[in-house]
Amino acid sequence: MALRSLLVALLALVALVLQTTVVERLGLPLGPPQLLVLLVLVVALLRGPGFGMGTGFVTGLVIDLQGGHVVGRTALVLTLVAFLAGQLAREEDALPWVPVSVIGVGSVIVVLLDALLGSALGDPLPAFRHVVAAALGAGIFDAVLAPFVYPPLRALFRRLRGRVAL
Prior knowledge:
Elements (H helix, E strand, L loop, with lengths): L1 H20 L13 H13 L1 H18 L6 H14 L11 H23 L7 H36 L3
């Protein structure tokens, strides 16, 4: 378990660096993919709600500490969405489209909930069309990236399961 936690922390660090230095500067229509959200959802699908919620909380806290908003807002949103995604962890092996769908829809929900929660906590709510565009962009781009992230992490976690007693 500690090895998987260390792996997820390392992947989150890589995703954070890529997000802030490369992805956000691409100028993609609808906004950039949300790499940390993608990672949290993949981990929740692969490891279940408990591990996913822990990953979502810590990752969300890291995101919150970078931004100029209430600390804990993104952590709460990612924890909730990771819990919901983790509930589908058992079904993901039966249907190959489930991970891509959960990641796409989960990314949309994260962006929408984060904007709504921010507004409730006093942050100015961006124009509705900007929030919807960002949510759709995150959902589409994260769903497109999911087949390139989910299978390698599933294989890596399975390999670690064989080497480490859990």
